[in-house]
Amino acid sequence: MRTMAENERSGSTAEDDEGGAVVRGSRIDAAWKGLPECRACGIRDLALFADLEEADFKLIHLPIEELSYGAGAVLYNAGDPARAVMSLRGGLVKLVQYLGDGSQRIVRLVRPGDSIGLEATLQDSYEHTAVFLQPGMVCRIPVEVVRRLNDETPRLHHQLITRWHRSLKQADDWLTGLSTGNARARVARLLLHLPREATADGTPICVLFSREDLGAMLGVTTETASRIIAEMKRSGVINERKFNQFACDDDALRSLSGE
Amino acid sequence: MRTMAENERSGSTAEDDEGGAVVRGSRIDAAWKGLPECRACGIRDLALFADLEEADFKLIHLPIEELSYGAGAVLYNAGDPARAVMSLRGGLVKLVQYLGDGSQRIVRLVRPGDSIGLEATLQDSYEHTAVFLQPGMVCRIPVEVVRRLNDETPRLHHQLITRWHRSLKQADDWLTGLSTGNARARVARLLLHLPREATADGTPICVLFSREDLGAMLGVTTETASRIIAEMKRSGVINERKFNQFACDDDALRSLSGE
DNA sequence: CGCCTTTTTGACTTAACTCAAGAATGGTGG
DNA sequence: CCACCATTCTTGAGTTAAGTCAAAAAGGCG
């Protein structure tokens, strides 16, 4: 089976390596941005700390760091010691799971406001490999902080449960939506599911990624993913504005998705 | 696409219908078994209440009921009002998700000790349809009881988080294991994943289900599922002792699974 | 025992995989 | 700035696994 890409597991993990911008190839692994002021966080209402009150912040006795990553940067690898929960502040992250034979499958996408590595609160190693698809930032919250807040304030643990729930729902939808039906329908559903970004001229755009990643999300080969995207471009269902940036005809996509 | 079985959504839901054994066709929907004594529960160490202490039980102010179901009985349908969390005491339950076109996909199997319908603590309707594949029993815990215990004792909410985590892990494994690779490998992995039951002569047996359900778990057609099981029977990888009860050659299965 | 459902099998079609080569793209270094 | 290199993407041709439609066989139930 060549359905999924080979695992490259290249380079060092960003965890434990937060000391500054490390440039390798064209990839910036992690750049330290300082200690954020959670109370003033621009996306706090989306984030893990959404419900915290003034008093709760006093319970934080370890630094929360803000780190920024380039596309391709690895947040952590499966099996790495899990010492922090991350809150995504921008960009897009894939969670990858490896099979026995070295092939891989992308099990979820993480978007701004979502948490990454929640399992750190329960066990001492990460379950997936987390890789940035689009550059962005995370707040790195040491697991001791999460544990302490969770013990002391119900406001955090409601948020935690909500996040577990959200991840599970996403996992179920991922299975039914992106792993079911023919390849064309899967691509269409994926495109519909992707975040849209506003452009200068007002057209919503969705940013796509490598055909290999596409294949690993949908459980099809790179070539099949490529062929379908190419075909959609030719038929005008999607319209490439810049490299891998597409304006989508959502109605057409919906009908392709078999809805 | 005919990949998955048509949604029959037949019959009434067991929820709200706990007043006694309802026999329709050959299916017993639900039989009321009485109010269990949690403290003395035989599988309590597996169940949601594993960590509760004597004082905690005093917080339970609504009855927990014990209900038994036959194969094919529907615990609840997707969208039904979610008024209880269930703890599975025996048997096997499938969680089904429906797609826009009416086809279905089985997203998870629930085994004894696992909880069903945890989303009831967060929202007012169930996300899946839950159906018994093998007859068994559940304890039905009103959502108010779970909420109250969760507010009052950290011992429950650790169990709750653990269960969310376990479900998510299972979802991820389900995707990579049962929705990846060719049909033969998927069937092999499913068989390896199924619980084994001891028989009189000591051979571990695994109880299989309809080809339609098999297809809906693996994302293949009923015919493909049937063909592969038939082929495995012929080649001796599995050995049918009774109807849908198989002795498995696990080493052979592992090699088929592409491990 | 006969009816109905599920399973199995067959024949055919088609979607997706495989292998391979050529085109495009982006980065690198002269 | 441009030429070159390494990827990644696209496309083609051939193969194969899985889907489809249909009918026969097997099981289970009344």
Descriptive notes:
Chains A, B: It comes from Rhodospirillum rubrum (strain ATCC 11170 / ATH 1.1.1 / DSM 467 / LMG 4362 / NCIMB 8255 / S1). Chains A, B: InterPro entries: cNMP-bd_dom, cNMP-bd_dom_sf, Env_Response_Regulators, HTH_CRP, RmlC-like_jellyroll, WH-like_DNA-bd_sf, WH_DNA-bd_sf. Chains A, B: One of its GO terms (cellular component) is cytosol. Two copies of one chain form a homodimer. The first copy, chain A, contains seven helices and 15 strands. Chain A is of the alpha+beta class and 259 residues long. Chain A folds into two domains: 155 residues, Jelly Rolls, CATH 2.60.120.10; 75 residues, Winged helix-like DNA-binding domain superfamily/Winged helix DNA-binding domain (Arc Repressor Mutant, subunit A), CATH 1.10.10. In chain A, the strands form four sheets. Chain A has a five-stranded antiparallel sheet. In chain A, strands 5-10-7-8 form a four-stranded antiparallel sheet. The longest helix of chain A has 25 residues. Chain A is globular. The N terminus of chain A is likely disordered. The interface between A and B is large, with 44 and 43 residues. The structure holds a DNA duplex (30 and 30 nucleotides).
